[in-house]
Design goal:
The chain is an alpha+beta fold and 395 residues long. The protein has one domain. The chain has helices at residues 17-30, 48-60, 71-75, 122-140, 157-163, 210-214, 232-237, 244-247, 259-262, 282-285, 297-304, 315-327, 334-343, 347-360, 363-375, 379-394; strands spanning 38-43, 86-93, 112-113, 146-149, 168-169, 175-176, 184-191, 220-222, 225-226, 253-255. Helix 13 packs antiparallel against helix 14 and helix 15 (363-375) runs antiparallel to helix 16. The protein is elongated. The protein binds iron/sulfur cluster (2 copies).
């Protein structure tokens, strides 16, 4: 039998196609030793279908404002990288279950961080994996040029992952891998290397509509099209007051929303615990709500700074904590919420405290709202307090 030709120690860019195929498979085989759970290869052609979709989204007002503004940059790899030939997509799977979750109890209400914010910030984790992959490739191809991107890069991680066969695009807008479900972090690297592409996967949703039906705010305009302005995941990260329509639906979500992934049958039983740095600290992913209201900047940074949920600072999380306390009608927290209304310098936070107090009700809440109507420095807060007061009194 003819022996397989050994993989060259280093490749030149003009090496024959067979060498590139062998190297591609060598990289794939090495992925898990680099801490990567799935790897796929795609051509670096423009993403023209995505471009049409993004233009349509913007025209319809479905953007959330966090995305790269320049649609050309998001869809044309050649604008980000000189003469790109391929994009390597990677996926790293994350845990979904707390081994011993602390319970939310009356007087000790807890919030919840979405799974994508458990453990070390996934940007840090993916950067580490892409760095290792770059080093691995450079050792074999000294002429390689590579540029890695994670979430904050211009390209759409999901579009790249879909093209590279990492997973299919679910109706819930997640990339769903057959091996790990949609509980994967995605990153990519544009290269000048002529890797042959992998095949995209077939759509796997079929007739299922569980995610669309389960969304608490009906944020899906249609399968695969999300109105980000209605999505709780984006709203938890916004810095302003949450619109009234969504306040109650926020529940105890402090950061992100997992509902449309939890209900997905493709995620059944998926819980990936093999990356140590992604292991959740139960007290951080289900923190007590009350202490969050008065947490200082330094303590916030110490506790949450290494996780993905801290990127917008403490204000959105404190606002969400107020909504959670209101939702739970946690009356033990009422004196502190009243103090927030009386003393917090941020009008959006005080307006949210008004909502929480109205939910809690009772003479102390009435008293706190009365004070705000008379003394708050912001018209918006006085107005909110007066409306809440009127509703409570009419009850
Ligand atoms: Fe709806 Fe939550 Fe999914 Fe957003 S993340 S679409 S709010 S279920
Ligand atoms: Fe697709 Fe059903 Fe999963 Fe939604 S819940 S992404 S429709 S399989």
């Amino acid at each position: 039998m003819k022996e397989a030709r050994p993989i060259a120690v280093t490749l030149n860019l003009d090496a024959p196609a067979g060498d590139w195929l062998r190297l591609r498979e060598e990289i794939r085989a090495a992925a898990s030793s680099l801490g990567i759970d799935k790897i796929g290869f795609a051509l670096a052609d423009p993403f023209l279908t995505l471009k049409d979709r993004l233009i349509q989204r913007r025209e319809n007002g479905y953007d959330c404002g966090f995305e790269e503004k320049d649609i050309d940059k998001r869809t044309h790899p050649e604008l980000l990288f000189d003469a790109p030939l391929s994009i390597i997509a990677i996926a790293v799977a994350y845990p979904t279950r707390l081994p011993d979750p602390p319970r939310s109890e009356p007087g000790a209400s807890r919030g919840i961080m979405a799974r994508s914010a458990w453990g070390l910030d996934y940007h840090t984790v993916l950067r580490d994996r892409l760095g290792k992959l770059e080093a691995y490739i450079r050792e074999r191809i000294p002429e390689a040029r590579m540029e890695s991107m994670v979430d904050t890069g211009a390209l759409s991680d999901r579009a790249v992952a879909e093209r590279a066969g990492i997973g299919f695009a679910g109706k819930n807008c997640s990339i769903i891998t057959p091996e790990f479900g949609s509980y994967v972090y995605l990153g990519e690297m544009i290269t000048n290397l002529p890797f042959a592409p992998d095949e995209p996967l077939e759509d796997g949703c079929g007739d299922c509509t569980l995610c669309l039906d389960a969304c608490p705010t009906s944020a899906f305009v249609k399968p695969g099209v999300l109105d980000a302005n209605r999505c709780l995941s984006f709203l938890t990260q916004s810095k302003d007051e949450i619109p009234d329509e969504f306040k109650d639906k926020m529940g105890n979500r402090l950061y992100g929303c997992d509902t449309c992934q939890i209900v997905c049958p493709k995620n059944k039983g998926m819980n990936w615990t093999h990356h140590e740095e992604l292991a959740p600290d139960p007290e951080l992913v289900k923190p007590l709500l009350e202490p969050l209201l008065t947490i200082g900047n330094r303590e916030f940074k110490e506790k949450f700074g290494s996780g993905a949920a801290a990127w917008r600072g403490k204000k959105p999380i404190q606002r969400n904590a107020l909504l959670g306390l209101g939702k739970f009608r946690d009356r033990k927290a009422l004196p502190l919420v009243a103090q927030v209304l009386a003393e917090d310098p941020r009008p959006d936070i005080r307006a949210t405290a008004v909502w929480a107090l109205e939910r809690m009700g009772g003479p102390e809440a009435l008293e706190a709202l009365d004070r705000a109507v008379l003394h708050d420095s912001e018209e918006l807060v006085r107005k909110r307090a007066a409306e809440s007061l009127a509703r409570l009194k009419s009850e």
